[in-house]
Each structure stands twice: as C-alpha cells, then as structure tokens.
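Page 37, continued from 36.
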C-alpha cells in the first residue's frame, strides 16, 4: 500500500451493445471481422519478455468454414514449459511486492481497453475462431471479461479490508500474500471471458501464472495477451503456452513450486489433474490450491402451473444459444403431460425459425460447433436416438460438415428418464425431454437430483408459490446456479456468481470474492506495543 487507503472505482456491469441493423457497432465489428478474416496470424508462446516461435506449429480454422486458413500457433516442448515456469518464478518477487493499487490499475486498464479500443477485435476474434454470433461474442469476450476484471478489483479490496479485531495494547493485521510459487491456469474453448479470467484473477491477487488456453481458442487468446501487455502486466506475470495438454500439465504438476491450478473444462480432465496433484503431493513446497469449474447436465423443470410459452422460450434460448456449448446450457427438460403438446408446438416453431450459418451473416442465430470431434460425437448421439425405441426426434436431427461443423438444433423426446442423453453431457445443440404425468411432479424432483453426476445449473418454472418453495428445497444440491422462472444460462458477473458442486466443480464461484480467496495466503501479524518483561503471570503470585 502506498500513502492512502485508496478506493477503487465502483464496478458496474459493462452495458451490452445491441448490434441491431443500422447501429454503428454493427458496421464496425463487421468491418473488423472481414479484415481479420483475410489476414493470417502467427501466435507465438508468450514467455517472460519473449514471443517464442518454436517452428513446430498447428493451424487454425474457423469452425463454420474449416477449409479457410487463419494462420498458425506455435507449440511448446518441455523446454519452453520449463522456461515459462522459470520466467514466472523470476517475476514473482517483484510482482508480489508491488503495491496493490498498481495491480488494480493494470487490470482496470485492461477492462477499459477491452470495453473500448479492443472491443471489435476481441469480438471479431471470438466470432471467427470460436464461431459465436455477434451477440454471444459481445456478452462473452467483451462484457463478461470486462466485468470479471472490474469486479475482481473491487472484490480484492473487499478482501483486504477484512481485518481482525485488535486491543489497545496490540494491533492485529491480516496481510493477503499471493501463493508461494506459481499458478497454472487451464482454460476451455467456449468462453473468451473465462480464458482471460483464469490467469488474470490469480495474477491480480499477486500471483504469477503459466496459462494454457484451449487449442480451439488460441485465436482470441492472442488478443487477450495483447491487451494484458498493453495494460502493463509485467513480463513473466502471465505466460501463455500452447502444445500437448498432457505434456504441459505433467511438466507443470511435477514442479516443486506449483502452488495452484485454476481450471475450467470437462469433468474427466479435472479429475485427472486432481489425481496427478495427489500423486505429486510429496514434491510440493505447499499444498496446492485446486479450483475447477467443470461439466454440467443442466435441467429445466416445468411444474404443471407454469406458463407454456415461457417454458418453450427457456428451452429455445437455454438449450441452443451458442449451439448449446455453454456449461450452463439446458440439455434435459421435464415437462408435464398436460403442457407437452403446447410446449412442443412452440419449440418446433422456434427451432424451425432459427437460421444457421456463418456469424458474419448477422441474421444467423445458430453457427457451427467447435471442431470435428465434437461434431462427430454429436452426430453419433443423434443417429443413436434415431435407432432407439425409447427416443424420438421431435425436431432437427440433421448435420453437415462439408463446409463447417453444422449440427441442426435437435430436440429428442424420450420415454426413459435415464436415457443416455438425459444423463451424459454432450455439449452441443441437443436437448432431451421427458414428459411426466402431472400428478407425479414431486416424484420427478429426486430423479432430476440423482440421474447425473453434475450439479451446475437448473431452472424451475411455476406460478404456484408452494410448488416453487418445495422444488427449491428438493433440488437444493442439484445446481450451484438455480433459476426460478428463467432459463438456466446467462449468469452475469457480480449478479449470479457462477459454479456448481458434485461433478461440476469445486464451486468456488468465478467472478466473486469466494474465488479470489483461493489465490491468497494470509499472514497474521500481531504487533504488541508494550511487550511483557516478566514471565510470571498474576496467578503465580504469593499470598
Ligand atoms: P476440455 O476439458 O476438453 O479442455 C479444457 C482445457 O483442458 C483445455 O485447455 C484443454 O487443452 C485442456 N486439456 C485437455 N485434456 C487435458 C489433459 N489430459 N490434461 C490437462 N489438460 C487437458 O473442455 P472444453 O471442450 O475446452 O470445454 C468444454 C467443457 O468445459 C465442458 O465440459 C463444459 O461443461 C466445461 N465448462 C465448464 C464451465 C463452468 O464454469 N463450470 C465453463 C465453461 C466450460
């Protein structure tokens, strides 16, 4: 701390621009998109002050036009991973000592760069590289990332203000140091904001980071690194490396100074990381912090009192926006028989009205899924549903990967509440619906609670207050983000802290004070003003 008890600007959510026809933001982002699409980029490893080109490269292609070449990114070998760890550790001392207000300034500046001069670039990169339509890119790579950066600065100061009681003879203080060692951030493909937040939040709290983005998000990850550099994140504080995920992870997790992992991605990968940390536990200087937000099998439950139109809209938006590739996307729904015909008609009407294609055409609501292996997996499940007697495709069911990885939004109805697509995370534009008898609604709740390993998001729809209270209690452990009369997606930083328990993660709530607490190691300092000069306590006195 410098010379003052400084207050940071009060965080407010970045307003979402509309990109409606005729707006200046629409023209601007389209022009950036077109310009970037023509160029070829070369993404280096960012290690310390160096941008390293190993010569061993992988190519990048837009999911909606996979023959189009966007350029390459360089792949690290074990040597560069060791170098990234060394450069992080070298930066550690100076960064850890820097007064907090300077760390705050850097990340507040990063937020303003994204909200302003980098907005079009980061949105266009997310549209091109991850195939998001402009609205999905805006709420993610611009607004959510800005929100993470701004709110985390505010939460950091709230943590620093939490101080112990003191008496007049001694002053007790809590000092929130970064962890001893370095943090490993591993990010998924589906949110540019998460990719930026995973390294930024530990760094903000005084840590140094080795960050491994997803291979399918490197294109926008480079823009994040450009922003960090321009905002003044010092060399070595955040090092970005790409390459074989297993090799990188093994190298990092074997290091004595590994102090924590900040992971978002699938459940099995996180479990494998946890297992490796356990195996290496005797090698570490400290007990590593393990923070992981993982998969989901998110539900919509409609009570017989619900409004069918609202239920249908929550399915259309909650299951299909960004092609269902949100950890929070609704992928199973439980609808009462009395409402099914109406909900079905409405959802079919919505799905048939969706336009699918490149995000460059802004009338497209649906674009491509992220890569071929995701496409093939989804196609397999859809084909299986066509064969299975207990499944029926209500709408969609077609797919085509000739130009891009396009999967039609698909609704499966099943007569089996534990049918495979009711329990397995597919991570695509597929939702499965189980229709139940109205009078059995209470029996459905334990089924929702127990039929998957996850507990990420879930929504209930009802106009009956008694039913709302009953279901909210019955599903207490079924979702870390629980919605009443709203779709289960669209959490906003500062408003709905995000994360789930069970197989869905450690529930440390990204974008909240709870998450930031994981990246500090507090030191208690007691300073006594007039120290004792005699060991004898009064009780030892003679009569
Ligand atoms: P993924 O698990 O395939 O990849 C995530 C990251 O882990 C990537 O950087 C990847 O390269 C890396 N990785 C892959 N295999 C690895 C290994 N063996 N060792 C170490 N690292 C490895 O996930 P994805 O496809 O990028 O993202 C989708 C998944 O992420 C879904 O399961 C989704 O539910 C989840 N997700 C969860 C949240 C949340 O907040 N709970 C948010 C976004 C995504």
């Amino acid at each position: 701390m410098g010379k003052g008890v400084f207050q940071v600007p009060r965080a407010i959510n970045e307003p979402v621009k509309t990109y409606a026809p005729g707006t200046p933001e629409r023209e601007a982002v389209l022009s950036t998109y077109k310009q970037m699409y023509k160029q070829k980029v070369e993404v280096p490893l960012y290690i310390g002050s160096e941008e390293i080109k190993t010569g061993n490269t992988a190519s990048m292609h837009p999911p909606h036009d996979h023959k189009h070449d966007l350029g390459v990114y360089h792949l690290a070998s074990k040597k560069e991973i060791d170098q990234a760890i060394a450069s992080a550790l070298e930066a550690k001392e100076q960064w850890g000592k820097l007064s907090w207000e300077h760390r705050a300034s850097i990340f507040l500046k990063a937020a303003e760069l994204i909200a302003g001069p980098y907005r079009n670039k980061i949105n266009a990169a997310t549209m091109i590289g991850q195939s998001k339509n402009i609205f999905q890119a805006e709420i993610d790579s611009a607004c959510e990332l800005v929100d993470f950066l701004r709110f985390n600065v505010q939460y950091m100061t709230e943590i620093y203000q939490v101080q112990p009681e003191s008496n007049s003879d001694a002053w007790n203080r809590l000092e929130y140091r970064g962890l001893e060692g370095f943090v490993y951030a591993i990010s998924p493909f589906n949110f540019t904001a998460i990719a930026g937040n995973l390294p930024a939040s530990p760094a903000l709290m005084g840590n140094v980071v080795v960050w491994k983005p997803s291979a399918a998000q490197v294109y926008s990850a480079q823009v994040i690194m450009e922003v960090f550099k321009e905002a003044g994140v010092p060399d070595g504080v955040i090092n970005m490396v790409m390459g074989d995920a297993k090799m990188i992870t093994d190298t990092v997790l074997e290091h004595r100074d590994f102090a924590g992992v900040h992971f978002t991605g699938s459940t099995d990968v996180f479990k494998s990381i946890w297992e490796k940390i356990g195996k290496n536990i005797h090698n570490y200087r400290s007990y590593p912090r393990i923070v992981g937000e993982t998969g989901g099998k998110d539900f919509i439950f409609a009570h017989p009192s619900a409004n069918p139109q609202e239920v249908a809209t929550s399915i259309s938006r909650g299951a299909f926006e960004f092609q269902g590739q949100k950890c929070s996307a609704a992928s199973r729904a439980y609808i009462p028989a009395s409402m099914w015909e109406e909900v079905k008609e409405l959802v079919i009407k919505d799905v048939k009205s969706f336009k699918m294609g490149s995000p460059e055409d802004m009338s497209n609501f649906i674009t491509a899924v992220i890569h071929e292996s995701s496409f093939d997996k989804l196609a397999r499940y859809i084909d299986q549903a066509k064969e299975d007697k207990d499944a029926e495709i209500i709408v969609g069911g077609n797919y085509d990967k000739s130009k891009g990885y396009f999967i039609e939004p698909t609704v499966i109805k099943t007569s089996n509440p534990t049918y495979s697509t009711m329990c397995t995370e597919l991570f695509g534009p597929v939702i499965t619906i189980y229709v139940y008898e109205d009078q059995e609604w209470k029996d459905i709740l334990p089924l929702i609670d127990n039929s998957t390993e996850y507990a990420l998001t879930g929504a209930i729809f009802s106009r009956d207050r008694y039913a709302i209270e009953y279901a909210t209690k019955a599903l207490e452990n079924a979702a870390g983000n629980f919605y009443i009369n709203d779709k289960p997606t669209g959490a906003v930083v500062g408003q709905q802290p995000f994360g789930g328990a069970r197989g869905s993660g450690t529930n440390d709530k990204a974008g909240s004070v709870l998450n930031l607490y994981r990246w500090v190691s507090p030191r208690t300092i007691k300073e006594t003003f007039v120290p004792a000069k005699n060991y004898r306590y009064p009780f030892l006195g003679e009569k």
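DSSP finds 16 helices and 23 strands in the chain. Flag for discussion at group meeting. The chain has a mean pLDDT of 98.
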